[in-house]
Write a structure and sequence with these properties.
Order of helices and strands: EHEHHEHEHHEHEHEEEEHEEHEHEHH
Helix content: 40-55%
Number of strands: 14
Strand order of the largest sheet: 3-2-4-5-7-6-12
CATH topology of the largest domain: Rossmann fold
Distance between the termini: 33 Å
Strand content: 15-25%
Largest sheet: 7 strands, mixed
CATH architecture of the largest domain: 3-Layer(aba) Sandwich
Number of helices: 13
Radius of gyration: 19 Å
Length: 321
Amino acid sequence: MTLAPASKPTRRVIADRMLEAGAANTDFVVFESDIGYSTYSYLFGDAYPARYFNMGIAELGTMAAAAGMAAEGRPVVVCGYGVFLSMRALEAVRSFVCYPRLNVKIFSSHGGVTAAIDGVTHQATEDIAFMGTLPGMTVLVPCDSASATAAFDLALGADGPVFVRLMRDPLFEVYPAGTGFRIGGSAMARKGRHVTIAAYGDMVIQSLEAAALLETDGVEAEVLDLYSVKPFDEAALRESLSRTGALVVAENHQVRNGLGYALASWCMRNGVHVPFAQIGLQDTFAESGSYPLTLEKFGMDPSSIAAAARAVIGRKKRSEQ
């Protein structure tokens, strides 16, 4: 499977879609904390200055102000870096956005170690845990242009708060333009029968590369893109595991309290007993460096995912003997 290189990162795709949507939907407003030229939200601000509020380096205040405007009935978009929106502003998201179920849509750039060269302070590797824990928060993580465009539309159309995790740099295009996505849905990025690799965001691409490596060994890996992290597609997970009987969860995040924990808990609650492995940061910070080398050093690259898949397949075979 050959993927076409992406020309834009998902953070820019979102900004372009936001600018386009702003012409037809004159109701929503956009809040930013200083870094509009990085998130590209400045494009919206240049086109619609009366609907754009750059609050400076003050994510907590930005989120509180956004909640105040949303409380008056207007949908509000908040753009920024994930590490600050999900932690510095966490109390405001929890108490002022999620508790009253306001229509605040958080578009969060630099998810995971996709912000590799910007270092640990800008790598949001705990954001899925924080945002996914908040009651009523929907979490979406697109992997390419088609899914990012859809994520903006889904977020703006949803009733209540939504957190969308985005990448710093362009990677590859996985889906054709116009592909359908939905909250609570998933996408079968690659069909297989020996092991399910569940992933989201940039790790979908790493998992597809891992599946190509496994194919040389005669292993058919299924790559399930759980772009809707919360709620996730339980029916698709069940169906996939009923065929493969083994699960690897690959995420650019701390393994603790990420999607892997949610899927493992779901398997235990529902009596789905399969060999299981997690790919992600193992209770450690990453470091500054190139994105591919950072993934490799911390065991999140395609070779590491393939090795985990081989291990769970081996455990499956031993249990069948």
